[in-house]
Amino acid sequence: MPTSLILACLWAIGANLLAMTPSRDKHWRAAFCLIAVGIPIVGYVTYQTGPLMGFLCLLGAMSMLRWPVVYLVRWLRGAPVPPRAPRVPEASSDLTPEMAEK
User: Does 96 fall in a domain?
Assistant: First the structure.
């Protein structure tokens, strides 16, 4: 097995392990790091094994990092990005008096 495919498999395992860890920012920092590391790996796979295998690795990476791809497509189309969901209070001390009455 070529070195590039071994690196791509290790990248996929690392991406899955990062997805299992808790995160306050919904894993966006990890996604940016995975993108920064994954682009050269996809290029290396393409260089070493050909464009078909590089394209398959790219599709696999896009399936794991689908939300950055969705936001990129929305941005390219000029569609508005939906607003972020309101923060859910973590403890009863975070509740406002109006929320506590409900």
Answer: no
